[in-house]
Amino acid sequence: MRWLRARLGMVAGERGSALVEFTFIAIVVFVPLVYVVAGFSAVQRGVFASTAAAREAGRAMGTAPDPVTGAARAEAAARLAVADQSVDATDVRVAYAPAGAGCDAAGGYAPTLARGEEFSVCVTVTVRIPLLPEFVDANTATGQFVVERDRYVDA
Fold first, then answer.
1. Does residue 6 have a pLDDT over 70?
2. In 3-state terms, what secondary structure has residue 98?
3. 55, 61, 154, 58: which is closest to 113 by C-alpha?
């Protein structure tokens, strides 16, 4: 048996080296890999949260009887949808844009909820990446939902 170990290159001085190599590989490769996966999942969670919040806020605004009630309902619906994705609801901004405009133009427009009116609801969510400081808030995800009021609504 001793001749077989010598022939295969197993010298007594190398005992336990596989454990050391595995530990080194685990620290160098697996720890950053787990951080990258956690970072990507945080970003994806923010994108899902903004998209779902825009859809729910648009539905709430589109079915409201008046703009003030609609804005309150839209804000509540957006916060609820964002909280459903385990994102901090304090980092949510709801804005409106006219028909055909993107979310870049959102903010100065207020829907009137007239018959047949079309507008976009834009929800911006700040994405927090794990282990980064709180002041790093440049990562945002914006969801957009186009609302078209029914032409046959009781006024």
1. no
2. strand
3. 61
CA 19 to chain centre: 39
Per residue in 105-137, pLDDT (tens digit) is 788 889 999 888 999 999 999 888 888 777 765
Q: How far apart are CA 49 and CA 56, in angstroms?
A: 10
CA distances from 61 to 14, 68, 125, 129 (A): 70, 9, 19, 31
DSSP 113: -
Q: What is the mean pLDDT of residues 79-103?
A: 89
DSSP letters of 16-79?
A: THHHHHHHHHIIIIIHHHHHHHHHHHHHHHHHHHHHHHHHHHHHHHHT-SSHHHHHHHHHHHHH
